[in-house]
Amino acid sequence: MRSLQKLGFFCILLFLVSPVLSSSSQEHVKGASKHKENIHKMISHKLSFEITLHGFLLWASMGFLMPVGLLAIRMSHKVECRRRLRILFYVHALSETLSLLLSTAGAVMSFRNFNNSFNNKHQRLGVGLYGLIWLQALIGIVRPQRGSKGRSMWFLGHWILGTAISLLGVLNIYTGLQAYHEKTSKSIRGWTIIFTVQVCFFTFFYLFQDKWVYIKKQGVVLANESKRSTIDQVVLPREKQKEVAPVESC
Fold it and tell me: What tens-digit pLDDT sequence spans the chain (250 residues)?
């Protein structure tokens, strides 16, 4: 009889306590899932920040500093003042050195924090560019002296490789924007438009400064010819005009 009473008391106690245990267990599961969700959000936010920082470093390196250095050394070909020539050379060297350092920082950041399976164009092109940038830096350091036999071949190779790196760097920025969109599902239209405008500006400036001296010379030649023709018509007689008539250049 007593055993039955104890069994009944134990069943009643278990019936009363079971809801409390069940609610505490559910709260524990909800707390664990919420904690995991917060950790996932923190990881996603950190990964998004690292991807953005990686993209900014590579844009500053490939998309800005490298074209600036290319424009500076291109402008030096038309400069006769030694002081301005030295300034443009230092701008070229400094911008290319900073570009190398920033691209190295972006590459190290990519290897450490991202899943580099090298199954897309952006990662493969990035690895190739990283090797070419260091090769270009070494070529720039071991340049021959001006006037030596190998200077012309060195200059040709340095110019071709530098131009190729700049073009591939711009292409890799576009592929990086596409990879950023696929990774974060964020819109890249605004960044693509801004970068395209920048590329067009650098291209126009490159072509314009290359022809600026030629354009100025064309204006001077035309002005001199017009002035000379006017003087000949006013001062010289017709016989002399025929004798001193300017020969038409090819």
Answer: 555 555 455 455 445 545 544 454 555 445 545 544 444 454 477 777 888 888 899 999 999 999 999 888 888 877 778 888 889 889 999 999 999 999 999 888 888 877 766 777 888 888 889 899 999 999 988 888 888 888 889 988 998 998 899 999 999 999 989 888 887 788 889 999 999 999 999 988 888 876 766 676 666 554 455 555 554 454 445 544 444 445 444 3
Domain-located, residue 154: yes
Range of the domain at 158: 25-186
Report the predicted TM-score, pTM, of the whole model to 2 decimal places. Answer: 0.66
CATH of the domain at 78: 1.20.120.1770
Which amino acid, 16?
L
Total of domains in the chain: 1
Residue of 69, 172, 67 whose CA lies nearest to 129: 172
